[in-house]
Amino acid sequence: MSKELSYTIEEVSQLLKVSKLTLYDLVKKGELPVFRVGRQMRIDAKDLDIYINSQKTNQSKKLQAPELELKRNITKDSYNIVISGQDMVLDILGKHIEKNSPYKPLRSYTGSLNSLISMYNGEYDIVSLHMFDGDTGEYNLPYIKKILVGYPYILLNLLSRKAGFYVKKGNPLNLASWTDLNRKDIKIINREKGSGARILLDEQLRIHGIPSRDIKGYENEESNHFSVASAVSSGKADVGVGIEKAAKIVGIDFVPLITERYDLVILKNPESEHLISVIKDILSSHRFQTEVHSLGDYDISQTGNIIYETY
């Protein structure tokens, strides 16, 4: 096998000086071919060169190159869709989608709020959400109603799970409630802006009247649950906010504080009608639910239920 250079989405983003969302959109539209190694999407250097040349002025003849048109047609026929979110259950969902439909799922690991905004801009097909609203005590819907203005959509439950504190083994600092974060002997590790865990933390601080500026370590961020849990395990921080699954994998203790509803939102239009039907069938299937249940720490009692739908 010949050794050809390839790039990750992040590397191409840096090379072209464009956002990763822009690249996901090009992949979704079939304009930039990709292949996958495990969970990671990669782009052949040759395909990247073809795309760059096709975008140059006075290069209309190159756009008609048979090999380029063939690549585009193959990509379009595979019905690429982009699923945004970080939970490993989304990998299981993607596997079932690929096995039981013509869709080819691609993954983005962007946080809930930024993903929802990207969906409004037409960049994602399925967005997973776990955003707590402190005024209503409800998850997800208050944010969707404010952001997806003018769009019909359906909100389906994927699962429920515990969220709370990552703490060191034995919980030596006896952290048990949100107000404990205001203690002067506590240093936290935060999640990035727009993530569901960051929204949960910020809403709880607001509800309890705790200024974020008083929280030691508030400005220190990690981009996923496992990195936050690892920061606590290594002693970089005393506590972080996340989900139970990551704590068990990393090997630290977990203090459950809230049950969060983890949902999927899909825009409703003629193009997504079949996709919605596929997702409904998968979520309600015994095979999918059994596979998710076997992971532990997930509540599937509402999986597949329609939480909200507009017409």
From TrEMBL:
Query: For this protein, what is any one GO molecular function term?
Result: DNA binding
Gene3D superfamilies for the chain:
Periplasmic binding protein-like II
Q: Where is the signal peptide?
A: none
**Pfam families linked to this entry:** HTH_17, PBP_like
List, alphabetically, the InterPro entries matched.
DNA-bd_dom_put_sf, HTH_17, PBP_domain, SinI_DNA-bd
Q: Which NCBIfam families has this protein been placed in?
A: excise
Segments forming domain PBP: 98-278
Protein name as annotated = Molybdopterin biosynthesis protein
PANTHER family in alphabetical order: BLL2305 PROTEIN
Q: Which SUPFAM superfamilies match?
A: Periplasmic binding protein-like II, Putative DNA-binding domain
Q: Which residues form the Helix-turn-helix domain?
A: 7-55
